[in-house]
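Tutorial handout. Part one gives the primary structure; part two gives the three-dimensional structure as C-alpha cells.
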Amino acid sequence: MNAAAGVARGGRRLLWAYGPSAVLLALLVAGWEAYVRLSGTEAYLLPAPSRVWRAFWEVKGLVPEHMRTTLGEAVLGLVYGTAAGVAIAVLVVSVPLVRRVLMPLLVVSQTIPMVVLAPLLIVWFGFGMTPKVLVVALWGFFPVAVATADALAGADREMVDLVRSMGGSRWRVLRDVSVPAALPGFFAGLKIASAYAVGGVVVGEWIGASSGLGLFITRAQTSFRVDRVFVAVVLIALLSMLLFAAVHVAARLATPWMYIKSEEETE
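Part two.
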C-alpha cells in the first residue's frame, strides 16, 4: 500500500510539474498543423508537423550517428567547461586580487559571439572534435564560474569563523563549509550551461564537421529539405532536455535538502 501510494504521489508530482507544458505543446503543434493545412503554405517554407514526422522516418537510420557525435562532444565540452568554471570560482573567491583582475575579463569574453569565434577555432584546430568541445567549454564555463563564485562567497560567515576558530585551514573551510553551501549555486550554473551545450556543438558543426547534427542541418539546407531541418531542431531540443534532466537528477542527489520544501508544497 505504501509503495502504491508513493507511485501515485510521484505521478501527481510529474503531472503537476509537466502536465501544463505538455498540453500547451500539444496545442501549439495542433495549431501549427492546422495553419499549414488551411493556409496552403508550401512545405519548403513551413512544413507541417506531420510532414516533419514523415521526414524523420526517412532519415531515422542516419540520425543516430549524428546524435551520438553531437551528444558526445556536448558532454565532453560541458565537463571541461565545468572544471574550468569551478577552478576559476575557487580562485577568485580565495584571492581577492584575482577577482578584481579576472572577473571583468571574463565578462568581456562573453561578449564575443560564438558564431565569430567558432570559425577561428576550426581554422586553428581543424574539423575534428576539438573545436566543438572548446566552443561548448567556452560557452559553459561562465555561468558555472559566476554562480559558483557567488555561492562560495555567500557561505555562512559564522560557520566559517567557527571552523577557523577550531584551527581549520583555508582549505578545510572550503571543503567543510564553503563547498556544501556552494552546491546549489554550482548546479544552477551547470543547468544553464547544459541547456546551451548541444546548441554550442551544433554551431561548431554547422560551420565545419564530418559528423553531427550541425552537419545534418547543413546538408538539409543545401537540398532545400526544410522538413529535415525541423527534424534536427527537434532532436537538438531532445538532447538538450536530456542533458538538463541529467544535471537536475545529479542536483537532487547532491542537494536533497533543496527539494524537500517544494515537494511538500505540491502534496
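Part three, for discussion. DSSP finds eleven helices and no strands in the chain. The chain has a mean pLDDT of 81.
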